[in-house]
Fold this protein.
Amino acid sequence: MNIDNLFINRELSWLSFNERVLQEASDPIVPVVERIKFLGIFSNNMDEFFKVRVASIKRMIDLKLDSKKILGEKPKKLLQLVQTKVMRLQVKSQHTYIEILRELERHNIFMVDESKLSPEQQRFVRIYFREKVLSAISPIMLRNVEKFPYLEDRAIYLACKLTGANNNIEYAIVDIPTAVLPRFIQLPAVGRRQDIIMLDDIIRFNIKEVFTIFQYEKYETYTIKLTRDAELDIDNDLTKSFLEKISKSVNRRRTGQPVRFVFDRNIPKDLLGYLTGQLELSDDDNLIPGGRYHNFKDFMNFPNVGGEKLKYEPLLPLDHPAIRTGSSILQAIDEKDILLHFPYQKFTDYINLLREAAIDPSVKKIKITLYRVAPHSQVVSALMNAVQNGKEVTVIIELQARFDEFSNIYWSRKLEEIGAKVLFGISGLKVHSKLTLITKETGRHQRHYSIVGTGNFHEGNATAYTDILLLTADQSIGREVDKIFDYFETPFKYPAFKHLVVSPQFMRKKICRLIDIEMANAKAGRDAWIMIKINNLSDRDVIHKLYQASCAGVTVRMVVRSICCLIPAMKNVSENIEAVSIVGRYLEHSRIFIFCNGGKEKYYISSADWMSRNLNARIEVALPIYDPDIQKELKFILETQLKDNVKARCIDSKQDNRYKRNHQPALSSQMFLYEHYQQISDKTADAM
C-alpha cells in the first residue's frame, strides 16, 4: 500500500470537522436559534481556515516549494482539493440557511429583504438609514480612483453597478458597517409576526440616497468579501523588543495577501471581471461564488426574538462537592486532589482560588502561564489584586496566540504597569501549557499548590469548552511545575522531570514508550489497550506507532474532535482502532490519555494534541494523575463519550461524518455527563 494512502490529509480532515459543525446547524433536533449560531461558527471557522491554512499553502506555491512531505499532497493539487470541498460545503451551508429560515417562519419569525417591506416598515428603514447608517458608510466611486481601495479582511461590501440614461456604467464600493451597527435589525411587528432585516438590505433599500447627487436609472448591488493571509511575519530587527515585533507584525496582518474572494453568484460578469482584475485575483485565489449574504459569522449574534423555547435550556455550572462556599479552597486542596470539569462545574472556583491566594498572608508567590484570556479577564484582575497585596506575581504570556495577539499585548502591558513580572516565553517555542503555581511560605518551609489543565484560563471559554483542571498539593508535582517556571526565566538550563511529561524534549518519547509497553503486553498475551481523548491527531510518527500497536493486537479507542489524519479500521493496518468525533452543545477541548500498562493503568491530562507543532515546537505539559478516585472519573468520562450514539460521528476513510448509531438507548455524552455531575452536586447539598 502507498504510504500516503495511510493518512487523511490534514486540511481535508479539518474541513470534515467543520462539516460536522454544519451538521449541527442542519440538525432539526437542535433548537433553531442554536442552529443559526452553529451556522455562524461554521462560517467563522472557514474564515480562519483560509486565513491560516490556505494562506500557508499559497505561500508554498508562491515560493515554488515541493512540500508534499509536509502537506501530504503537492500544494497546487491540495489547493484544488480544498477548493472543491469548500465549494460543496458552501452549497450545503446555503441550503442549511434556507432550511433555518423555514423553521424560523414556523415560529412567526421572518427574515425579510428590502423588497418585502410594508409601508410602515419602509418608513422605519428610511429613518433608521438616515439616523444610523448613512453617516457610518464610506462609498467609493471607482471610475476616477488611481488605486483600487483597500478591502478590509473579513469585512463585507456592496459592489455596486450604476447605469445611467445613456447606458453609461459606473462601479462603486459601499462598506457594510457591522463593526459599529448590528447586522440584524428588528422591524416593527405586524400582528404576531416578527420581521428581521439585515443591515445589507437596509443599505440596498436606500442605495439611491447613497448616490443622491447622481441621476442613475438602475442600481444593482452584490455582496463581496475578501479573506487575507493572517500569518505573522516577524522581523529580525535586534533593536526592537519581542513585544514591539509582535505588535508591528499584527498590524501588518491587515494588509496580508488575498487568499479567498467570495461573491454573490448573481453578480454581472463585467463587474466581477473588473473587481478580480483590480484585486489581481486568479482562479488559484479561491474565487467562491456564494449567495446574497456573506459573513455568516455574524449569525453567532442573531437576536432571539422568539423566546427561550428557541434556545437550549440553560445548564448552570454545578458546585464541586469538595469546594464549599465560605471555606478555604487551599485547605480543600490540602485534604485531597480536586478535578474540576468545565463547563459542567464552576470556573469561578478557580478564580476564587486566585482571589484567596491574593489575600492569604502566607501566600508569597503566584506564577501562571496565559495563552488566551477573556476580554474583561477576572483571572488577570485577580492577579493584579495579588500584586497590590504584595505577592510576587510572575506571568508567562504567549504573544503569538493566533488572533489573540492584540489582547495579550494589552494585558501584558497592564500587568507590567502594576508591577507583575511578565515574561514572553522562549524564542522559537510557543508556551501552550496551562499552569498555575501558588506558593505558601512559613518560616523556611515552602508549600506548593499546582493547578494544571487542558484549557486556557479564560472564563468565557469555560462556559462553552469542555476542559479539565487538576488542583493538587502534591509537593513532587509542585517542585516540577516550579522547575518549568524557572526554565522560562533561565532557558539555557533545561530541567529533568520524574512526574511531568514536557514537550518538546520528552513528550514524544514518552508517548511512544507507553505505546511500546502496550505492544509488548499484547504480544505476551496480556491485556493491552489505549484510550485517548484529544482535539487533533496529525503527527505521522505517532500515527505510525498507533498502527504498529493495532497490528500487535492493542485495542485503541479514540475521541478526536477535529483533525484526525489516522484512518481507523484498515485491514492489516488499523483493524483494532476505533475513532469518533463528538460535536455538540459544547466544544470538546480536554485531552486525556489512559494506558492499560499491564493492569497498572497510567492516566494523564494534557495541554497537548498529538500534532508535530505540539510535540516539537511548543512547551506543553502532560500531568500524571495518581488519585484513584480521579482516575476512575477520567475513565468514566472517556467510556461515556465512546458510548455516545447521538452526537458521535465515525471517523473513517470516507470522511462522510456518519453518525454512530446502534441498538442501545440514545446517549448524548455531554447531557449524560451534566446529569451525572448534577446528581453528585445534589447529593452533596442534601448531606449538608
Notes: The two ends are 63 Å apart (CA to CA). The domain at 330-496 is CATH 3.30.870.10 (Endonuclease; Chain A). The chain is about 40% helix and 20% strand.
